[in-house]
UniProtKB/TrEMBL annotation:
Keywords: Ligase, Nucleotide-binding. One of its GO terms (molecular function) is phenylacetate-CoA ligase activity. Its EC number is 6.2.1.30. This is Phenylacetate--CoA ligase PaaK. Monomer. Pathway: Aromatic compound metabolism. It is an enzyme of class 6 (ligase). SUPFAM superfamilies: Acetyl-CoA synthetase-like. Residues 52-285 form the AMP-dependent synthetase/ligase domain. The gene is paaK. InterPro entries: AMP-bd_C_sf, AMP-binding_CS, AMP-dep_Lig_C, AMP-dep_synth/lig_dom, ANL_N_sf, PA_CoA_ligase. GO terms for biological process: benzene-containing compound metabolic process; monocarboxylic acid metabolic process. Residues 334-428 form the AMP-dependent ligase C-terminal domain.
Length: 430
């Protein structure tokens, strides 16, 4: 059971469709975007050189800096009169990346979001409470439109307003909640303070994404809220949410909607395309976008691809849960540390709550790493004993010892009510 038959198309049919659409996309950018024309000319390729989707690897990459350098609209491939929507993704520094949609682009977005929700098990008649932020962020409106397109009912609570959010979950008997994983945990905490057990409500599933999370964090959410947690992935530069999602049936990788978005996985250092199954940086080419086409966009997100047909019957490629980005890697005293390694340990210790932050400092020429973590509500031992335990556990997985582990009481670490959680604070260049 799928929303759109294309989800079970044969690989040959897909190949043909992708080839045709890539040719159109390359022609579109070559004709309409001077930057792309120069970029392709420099690489010595023209639209006529594309005979097959496999020729994609001869095209140059597009990077985040290229979007920034062309701020705000120099990569748009249509005149302003043809635009119907603008969104933006805020980076940590500088100007946001502005992205644009024509009417057809919005139609594609609505459809891939409806497909995604269907794959996640959402059906007509369901109440979907949408806790992603509305506004320039793509999460709110992306989910909103998809729910309506599918024919379910959307409750547009948006981010924040947590008390009302909990009231709505309870009073409307929402079946589905869409929000970031960190916000799920925050909701649970606040509900507990209000004397409400979220796992006793009607809520059946949460659709979490927009920020990385580890498997243990997902289990924590599933247990606390008494739900199935489905991973949804996307990025503004490509369309927003709805690039890929897990199917409820197998929950074994995220189906990426290849009729609209073509994925490659490359070595983040060399840019070389890696064989199926190897982990590397996800690169995506949009195959149907009109207003803001992207050729070989370096997402920065680390994953791997699996082309086997899924148990759910969908033939579309599956990508692994993104637990980190190529630039997440923290080099501490010359040693590689991924925040996800620390998260896995934190979530695995029962006495610890899943709220932590990592601070990096530089003292002289030496990097220091400090970890602050909250203890669980019901922990009644000493902070010192727990700190020793955490240090010992971290030693098993990290090649560098944290300089300080500090256990604090519940609620001490700032929560993120709207937007994406920030767990790593690098003060080394301050
Ligand atoms: O976060 C779109 C979105 C909204 C996805 C709601 C899912 C749900 P941006 O703000 O442009 O767009 O941020 C995109 O967020 O490159 C990843 O690094 C990260 N990201 C998105 N989804 C996931 C996920 C939206 N499921 C950036 N797991 C991406 C891990 C994710 N990281």
């Amino acid at each position: 059971m799928v929303y759109n038959e294309v989800e079970t198309a044969s690989r040959d049919e897909l190949h043909e469709l992708q080839t045709e659409r890539l040719q159109e996309t390359v022609e579109r950018v070559y004709e309409n975007v001077p930057w792309y024309r120069d970029h392709l000319d420099e690489a010595g390729v023209t639209p006529e050189d594309i005979d097959d989707i496999d020729d994609l690897s001869s095209l140059p990459f597009t990077r985040k800096e290229d979007i920034r350098d062309n701020y705000p609209d120099k990569l748009f491939a249509v005149p302003h009169e043809d635009l119907r929507r603008i969104h933006a993704s805020s980076g940590t520094t500088g100007k946001p990346k502005i992205v644009a949609y024509t009417e057809d682009d919005l139609g594609v977005w609505h459809e891939v979001m409806a497909r995604s929700l269907y794959a996640a098990g959402v059906r007509e008649g369901d109440m979907v409470q949408n806790g992603y932020g509305y506004g320039l962020f793509t999460g709110g409106l992306g989910f909103h439109d998809g729910v309506e397109e599918l024919g379910a009912c959307v409750i547009p609570t948006g981010g924040g307003n947590t008390t009302r959010q909990i009231d709505m979950l309870q009073d409307m008997g929402s079946d589905v909640l869409s929000c970031t994983p960190s916000y799920c945990l925050y909701l649970d905490e606040r509900a507990e303070d209000m004397g409400i057990d979220l796992s006793a409500l009607d809520l059946e599933r949460v659709i979490i994404g927009a920020e990385p999370f580890t498997d243990p964090m997902r289990e924590e959410i599933e247990e606390a809220l008494g739900v199935t947690a489905i991973d949804v992935y996307g990025l503004s530069e490509i369309i927003g949410p709805g690039v890929s999602i897990e199917c409820e049936h197998a929950q074994d990788g995220l189906h990426l909607w290849e009729d609209h978005f073509y994925p490659e996985v490359v070595d983040p250092e060399t840019g070389e395309v890696l064989p199926e199954g190897e982990e590397g940086e996800l690169v995506v080419t949009s195959l149907t976008k009109q207003a803001f086409p992207m050729i070989r966009y370096r997402t920065g997100d680390m994953t791997r691809l699996n082309y086997d047909t899924c148990d759910c019957g969908r033939t579309m490629v599956r990508m692994d849960n993104v637990t980190g980005r190529a630039d997440d890697l923290l080099i501490v005293r010359g040693v590689n540390v991924y925040p996800s390694q620390i998260e896995e340990v934190m979530v695995d210790i029962a006495e610890v709550a899943p709220h932590y932050r990592i601070d990096l400092y530089r003292e002289g020429n030496l990097d220091t790493l400090e970890l602050t973590v909250e203890h669980a509500h019901d922990y009644d031992g000493t902070h010192e004993a727990l700190e020793d335990d955490i240090e010992a556990r971290l030693k098993e997985v990290l090649d560098v010892k944290p300089d300080e582990v500090e256990v604090v009481g519940p609620g001490v670490i700032d929560r993120t009510e709207v937007g994406k959680v920030k767990r790593v604070y690098d003060h080394r260049d301050e």
